[in-house]
């Protein structure tokens, strides 16, 4: 897809005003998308002449924006002082002339793949009425899908950019972790967190990633234009509708001449044995333990229960987890051999909000939606979810590559996007 951006310095002020007006209408569709709007004055003539100048941007409420309090989806941080400076990636986008709309809603501390927030409400899925948006970057995905923002900046610890992208019919990109600075971004897991964009197309994600990347980042490892589908991971427990749509996507790619093989990847079998939950549980407690100890009653109970699991880990088990992951990454990269791992982003359609009232269903579905995307985080890779619609059934098709393959993966994904984007993305009835 060519870089035919719809934004400009000349239209930024009007588009921002229109967005603020739509949010102020507070309809069921727009409610709970933002936790706060930014009210800075916009001077279009002061914006620099760059490819991103005038683009409307929403920011996950996990990253600092100068003059505003970052709440990270919590109540216990709601009265913190306003940020004294922008997070590094926000600063880079400001220098590019981006126009910031507001902080978007999210799962508390980014600790789930479903997107619910009991404190600030949960935004409704933009494509599936009455269904969850996916998380943890829930409001960010909905803000792009509804046209409030040209792109959003969020984080991804186990799929939090790709899950909501898949559920809302947009593109989500998890870059290699080291490519973007984490200064000014509250962590969930320092081992697994990545910062990246969601947008309506690959071209925008590519431009944004280049803008927020650290100086000198090349990420020039080349992917081979070949797909491998793991036969031992990621394609079981699939909703029949998702399975059918994924099969159609595979057929379309094969018609275009792309090589697609199915193989057993032993590294993914070994990954199943890792206590991956320790990363978020232990590392989030290390950062937020004072609040967890003194103000636990202010936490989302579901988040608190997961943080409490840190007490089940020991220094030895956590160190063993770190060592096992360090050994697994090169083994996975050797098996992948610079090819692209191809899986459905999530194996189900977005569930109805009402299903989430049951704690057992919540826990089961949370693990299920995180399963496939988490591979890229544990294996220290980069990954992208593309929307695909088959006979009105909307899914995400996920492309995952090895660490530092970002640029090559994005360029390849732009070609795949063309092959997959021939059908419209209609709204449909909620899943059961």
TrEMBL record:
InterPro entries membership: Amidase (IPR000120), Amidase_dom (IPR023631), AS_sf (IPR036928)
Pfam family of the protein (one): Amidase
Single GO MF descriptor: transferase activity
Transmembrane segments: none
Every Amidase domain range: 48-410
Taxonomy, superkingdom: Bacteria
Protein name, entry field: Aspartyl-tRNA(Asn)/glutamyl-tRNA(Gln) amidotransferase subunit A
Record organism: Primorskyibacter sedentarius
């Amino acid at each position: 897809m060519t870089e035919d951006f719809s934004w400009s310095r000349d239209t930024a002020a009007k588009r921002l005003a229109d967005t603020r007006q739509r949010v102020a209408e507070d309809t069921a569709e727009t409610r709970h998308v933002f936790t706060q709007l930014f009210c800075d004055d916009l001077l279009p003539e002061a914006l620099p002449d760059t490819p991103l100048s005038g683009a409307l941007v929403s920011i996950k409420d996990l990253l600092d924006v100068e003059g505003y309090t970052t709440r990270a989806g919590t109540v216990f941080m709601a009265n913190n002082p306003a940020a004294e400076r922008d997070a590094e990636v926000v600063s880079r986008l400001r220098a590019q002339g981006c126009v910031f709309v507001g902080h978007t809603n999210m799962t508390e501390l980014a600790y789930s793949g479903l997107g619910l927030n009991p404190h600030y409400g949960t935004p409704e899925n933009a494509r599936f009425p009455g269904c969850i948006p996916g998380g943890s970057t829930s409001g960010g995905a909905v803000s792009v899908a509804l046209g409030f923002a040209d792109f959003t900046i969020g984080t991804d610890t186990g799929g939090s950019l790709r899950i909501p992208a898949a559920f809302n019919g947009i593109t989500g990109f998890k870059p290699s972790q080291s490519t973007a600075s984490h200064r000014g971004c509250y962590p969930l897991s320092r081992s697994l967190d990545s910062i990246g964009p969601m947008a309506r197309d690959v071209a925008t994600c590519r431009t944004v990633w280049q803008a927020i990347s650290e100086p000198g980042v090349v990420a020039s490892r080349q992917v081979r234009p070949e797909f491998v589908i793991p036969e031992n991971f990621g394609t079981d427990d699939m909703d029949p509708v998702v399975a059918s749509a994924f099969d159609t996507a595979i057929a379309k790619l094969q018609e275009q001449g792309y090589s697609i093989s199915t193989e057993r990847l032993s590294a993914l079998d070994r990954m199943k044995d890792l206590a991956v939950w320790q990363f978020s549980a232990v590392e989030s407690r290390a950062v937020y333990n004072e609040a967890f100890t003194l103000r636990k009653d202010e936490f989302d109970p579901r988040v608190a229960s997961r943080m409490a699991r840190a007490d089940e880990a020991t220094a030895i088990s956590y160190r063993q987890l770190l060592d096992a992951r360090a050994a697994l990454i090169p083994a996975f990269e050797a098996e992948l051999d610079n090819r692209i791992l191809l899986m459905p982003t999530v194996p189900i359609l977005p569930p109805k909000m009402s299903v989430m009232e049951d704690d057992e269903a919540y826990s089961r579905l949370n693990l299920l939606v995180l399963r496939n995307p988490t591979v890229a985080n544990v294996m220290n890779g980069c990954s992208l979810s593309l929307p695909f619609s088959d006979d009105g059934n909307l899914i995400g098709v996920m492309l995952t590559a090895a660490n530092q393959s970002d640029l090559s993966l994005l360029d390849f994904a732009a070609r795949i996007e063309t092959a997959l984007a021939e059908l419209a993305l209609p709204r449909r009835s909620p899943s059961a």
